[in-house]
Write a structure and sequence with these properties.
The protein is an alpha+beta fold and 113 residues long. It contains 4 helices and 6 strands; from the N terminus they run βααααβββββ.
Length: 113
């Protein structure tokens, strides 16, 4: 069975939460995600799109036993997004990410072949 998850977030909201509660980043994102986002010109777009991706994957999997930090976004050498669950590649999940100045969105397809 194929399942779909979708999420959209306001980039400014992610930035506000992270600045108000600095532990937010380490509770939600892996060390490698934090390191990657901090190297980008607008790091908040990248944090927000990864947050949306985690939510989309969580929804597609219907897994209440996973935390957002258990789900992480990886990148192929060409920049294509992938998904890791508890540090391991999740081959049955397809991910699409998008962001603009104000919003970040992600779609996850679980059970894809």
């Amino acid at each position: 069975m194929t399942e779909l998850g979708l999420d959209i977030v306001e980039i400014a909201r992610v930035e506000r939460v992270a600045k108000k509660a600095p532990r937010f980043l380490t509770r939600v994102f892996t060390d490698s995600e934090i390191a990657y986002c901090r190297t980008q010109a607008d790091c908040w777009q990248h944090f927000a799109v990864r947050f949306a991706a985690k939510e989309a994957v969580w929804k597609a999997l219907g897994r209440l036993d996973l935390s957002l930090k258990d789900i992480s976004v990886s990148r192929t050498p060409r920049g294509k997004p992938g998904v890791l669950i508890k540090g391991r590649k999740a081959p049955g999940i397809k991910l699409s990410l998008s962001h603009c100045e104000s919003y970040a969105a992600a779609v996850a397809l679980a059970g894809a072949k």
